[in-house]
Write a structure and sequence with these properties.
Blueprint (H helix, E strand, L loop, with lengths): L8 E5 L4 E6 L17 H14 L5 E6 L16 H4 L15 H18 L5 E5 L2 E3 L1 H8 L2 E4 L4 E3 L10 H11 L1 H10 L1 E3 H7 L4 E2 L5 H13 L3 H14 L4 H16 L2 H12 L9
Parallel strand pairs: 2-3, 3-4, 4-6, 5-7, 6-9
Antiparallel strand pairs: 1-2, 7-8
Length: about 280
């Protein structure tokens, strides 16, 4: 069963095993619809990714934008329409009242939705075809791999008086080092070449090569047993916040489990028979 589709976010699975999730408001540089609401863009990205995670035919999830922008973040000058804000959907995640409303809105709504993206077990790729602003940048940073082009920009909400949000404040210091992360925090914008030099982008290619390069990378990823990827992702993400000793325990436990998996046996047979493996995630 697939997700409930909306027109401002496309869900495009391919027989190849790639699922394309595309921000689809090109006339607004793919600005978000809503913020923490249950039908807002960030919530739908999480819903779409979970649907792809549950689909046995999907191997890799690619997040990108239609047109020349990746995602320009929140539309600060426009209120979300009723079908998104929850006026027609009681119990929307963004509905909070009282003096603590702002914190509840972001921590129990927006932040929680961003966490959904980081918990997807399958490989996630951000194909950043243009500016990634505010929450758009955060969603790109929550993905496992980022591929950019000369149009790529990372932009914070500094001009609007806001700090770097969920993914940025956590991942940036780990990706680029504290000094560089603070430089970005103090200035608010990073162009493609500098982002690649700093390690925010795994790859930097010409815009016309962006999709072919992404497809080729996905093909190479899909040639690897999926359980190896799923477990590697979980261990490496956990290792960011744990010790070497704990990491060694996790890897030794996982190694024994993987050794007996059907995919591992198929990988060994394929290697000996000099053919491409047929993996089922088992």
């Amino acid at each position: 069963m697939g997700p409930r589709l909306v027109d401002y976010l496309l869900y495009e699975p391919e027989p190849s095993g790639i699922l394309w999730i595309k921000f689809n408001r090109p006339d607004k540089m793919n600005a978000l619809v809503g913020t923490a609401e249950e039908n807002g863009t960030v919530a739908k990205v999480g819903e779409y990714m979970r649907a792809g995670d549950d689909d046995p035919n999907v191997r890799v999830i690619v997040l990108t934008g239609v047109g020349k922008g990746f995602c320009s973040g929140a539309n600060l000058g426009q209120k979300a329409p009723p079908e998104v804000t929850g006026e027609n959907f009681p119990g929307a995640r963004g509905a909070h009242e009282g003096p603590d409303a702002a914190r509840q809105h972001f921590f129990h709504g927006f932040t929680d939705l961003h966490r959904d993206i980081s918990l997807i077990r399958k490989p996630t790729v951000a194909m950043i075809n243009g500016p990634a602003v505010g929450s758009g940048m955060d969603m790109a940073l929550h993905c496992d791999i980022r591929i950019g082009c000369e149009r790529t920009r990372f932009i914070g909400y500094h001009n609007a008086g806001q700090i770097i949000e969920n993914g940025g404040s956590y991942y940036l210091p780990k990706m680029v080092g504290l000094g560089r992360a603070l430089e970005f925090a103090y200035t608010g914008e990073l162009k493609a070449e500098r982002a690649y030099e700093w390690g925010m982008l795994n790859h930097l290619v010409a815009s016309e090569e962006l999709e072919p390069f992404t497809r080729d990378l996905c093909e190479r990823m899909m040639a690897i047993p999926p359980m190896v990827q799923w477990i590697s992702k979980r261990i490496m993400r956990a290792a960011l916040d744990t010790s070497l000793e704990t990491t060694m325990v996790m890897t030794s436990n996982a190694g024994g489990i993987l050794q007996q998996s059907e995919d591992a046996k198929e990988a060994r047979r394929a290697f000996m028979e000099k053919r491409k493996g047929q993996f089922r995630g088992m």
